[in-house]
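Entry 12.
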Amino acid sequence: MPQGDKSKYTDKQKRQAEHIEEGYEKRGVSEEEAERRAWSTVNKHDGGGKKPGGSGRKSS
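Predicted 3D structure (tokens):
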């Protein structure tokens, strides 16, 4: 997956990032910086995009 590719994220994660980005832009943060911060926040909460194996995957 190339850097910046958002195809592995769920629709919910994409909506969350969009909402967070809008909040940053309302506070005067540049569009590019707001997008970066929004995806960082989504990654912090969910650990990134979809993981293989679903809910029953084994933790090591």
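Annotation: The radius of gyration is 13 Å. DSSP finds two helices and no strands in the chain.
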